Amino acid sequence: MEFSPNNHVIKLCVQGMGAEGKGKPEEASWLFLQAWNEATNDFEKFIAAHFVARHQENLSDKLKWLETALQSALKTGGAVKSALPALYLNIAKCYEDLGDPERAKKNYESANSFTDLPFDNGPFYHGTRADLQVGELLIPGNRSNYSPELIMNHIYFTAIINGAGLAATLAKGDGRERVYIVEPTGSFENDPNVTDKKFPGNLTRSYRTDAPLKIVGEVTDWQKQTPEDLQKWREKLANNKGDIIN
After folding, report:
1. Residue 116 — very low, low, confident or very high, per pLDDT cuts 50/70/90?
2. Is residue 117 part of a domain?
3. In sequence order, what E strands does the chain have?
4. Do 104 and 178 lie in a common domain?
5. What are the b/e assignments for 83-94, b being 16+ CB within 10 Å?
6. Rounded Cα–Cα distance for residues 195 and 218 (Å)
7. 0.90 cut: is pTM over it?
């Protein structure tokens, strides 16, 4: 199952994070628990349990929810592989604080078994309003859609077509929304602006590169945002005061 901002459980978690940002931990905790109660598959249970865990004051309760998140994550068949290192590290820290060095060591070793480099075979997509042709190259050096004063050092792309569609919708310009199939011409990394900052790991499968992206095709069918959801995204971007890691 792929990450979707339209997923009901994810929406509840986003609301919970919003409550956290407003200094309302009790409301956030209730929203995360509601997300857990309404989760219907292992992907949703993993996400909800992750957020429930971080609102536990009791260390043993926190460990229980982290291990619940881990077990759900492992059942997804690799869909949330990018989140596993952080999960193992948090579990290891809990065991360490609880005075169980053997289990702590085991989980630290599990965390260290993952490499930092992204493993994703694509296909990859880039959303924009620019009218481009197959064979053309996308290169760094353009202004950010989200902070126009910032010249970007990287080109951003994703392996989730609906994520590229959302980026195209939010992009500046008067042209129609376009989602291109792209191929990286050099190495790439997880987008640090999303990785572990909100949801654990890189569930949006978002990447960036300082090498050109080659356009190899275009797709026209992706899940469009409702006008209401699109307005919420625009308001969220307008109110976002965080720095972009460039």
Report:
1. low
2. no
3. 124-128, 137-138, 155-158, 178-184, 189-190, 206-209, 213-219
4. no
5. bbbbbbbbbbbb
6. 26
7. no
